[in-house]
Amino acid sequence: MNQAVIAIHGGAGTITRDAMDPAREREYTEALEQVLLAGQRVLASGGTAVDAVTEAVRLLEECPLFNAGKGAVLTHAGTYELDAAIMDGATLGAGGVACVTRLRNPVLAARAVMDHSEHVLFAGEGAEAFAQAHGLELVSRDYYYTQARYEQWERARAVQGMALLDHDAATLAARALAGKADPIDPDSKFGTVGAVACDSFGNLAAATSTGGVTNKQAGRVGDTPLIGAGCYADDVAAISATGTGEMFIRAVAAHDVSAQMRYAGLSLEESARRVVMEKLPAIGGRGGLIAVDRAGNVTLPFNTEGMYRGFARASGPVSVSIYG
Ligand code: ASP
């Protein structure tokens, strides 16, 4: 029982103290704490790792502060296209949805794919039809809207034509408001959410959900719904990633954390460090990941200025951090 633990993230990127006022910092901290408490309750009552990560990511999707579900970022075309995935380390069962535009909770659709389909990944309208057939809620485009994301998108479009990680765009918008406008850093901003857990049976699970990167091209799919890239769990480790999706895909980043442990005998911490601090930067990858192993070890590395993150054991206090 004592190895049971849940860890969550709300994205990595250019998250700096100078772009954050105390009230906003409190909002993020409290939101992360509430999600961890909910995940902790699932684990403490003997729930599975799969149930704990599903509930944590569902709550993060419901929270407009994060770039998943409500509060998702916009594509270049001004639309919302969401991606999500989940994996059960005990069975290697997995499910994902990509480019969905009408699902309230993409992670619940990913879970339905894992639980009720012979397939692993559904995209677009087929994914929505599958989710609807399994009783999941569809919403109109307006549901995802937040003023903050709209302003980020307008800024990203006005200053340059490239896609930005969510928290990089937020920082740029805040600096601009404070009269400290920087030239836009093309490499900065991610706001994806994710959760990993080890339950009291020693089973592992991971889930990840995102609106993608601000101002992305319509139809672009990142690492989040791809098993092995932005989400992975087996009987060694569970991993959820956030960052420049293209590089996480090319590095098969989430799977690599487990593979280095299995094949090279690395610890969870050292394996995750090599992926985030060496392998991803070598190809221009920015971001971070959260990972747990079956002994209940937790690591939360990132190579950006900050990452919204935290963890909680089945009993005991929750721990939340933002900056490096
Ligand atoms: N990894 C996500 C993507 O590329 C973005 C993020 O982490 O915020 O879609």
Secondary structure layout:
Blueprint (H helix, E strand, L loop, with lengths): L4 E9 L8 H23 L4 H14 L19 E7 L4 E8 L5 H11 L4 E3 H10 L13 H13 L6 H12 L15 E6 L5 E7 L20 E3 L3 E7 L1 H6 L2 H12 L3 H15 L4 E7 L4 E2 L6 E8 L4 E6 L1
Parallel strand pairs: 3-4
Antiparallel strand pairs: 1-5, 1-11, 2-3, 2-6, 5-6, 7-8, 8-9, 9-10, 11-12
Helix pairs in contact: 1-2, 2-3, 3-4, 5-6, 8-9
The structure holds aspartic acid.
The site of aspartic acid has 18 residues, from β8.
Keywords: Autocatalytic cleavage, Hydrolase, Protease
GO molecular function: hydrolase activity, acting on carbon-nitrogen (but not peptide) bonds, in linear amides; peptidase activity
Pfam families: Asparaginase_2
Plain-language structure description:
One of its GO terms (biological process) is proteolysis. This is Isoaspartyl peptidase. A hairpin with a 4-residue loop joins strand 9 (287-293) and strand 10 (298-299). The strands form two sheets. The chain has an eight-stranded mixed beta sheet with strand order 4-3-2-6-5-1-11-12. The protein has a single domain (5-323), classed as Glutamine Phosphoribosylpyrophosphate, subunit 1, domain 1. With 324 residues, it is of the alpha+beta class. It contains nine helices and twelve strands. Aspartic acid binds at residues 11, 67, 165-166, 190-192, 210, 212-213, 222-224, 230, 242-243, 245, 287.
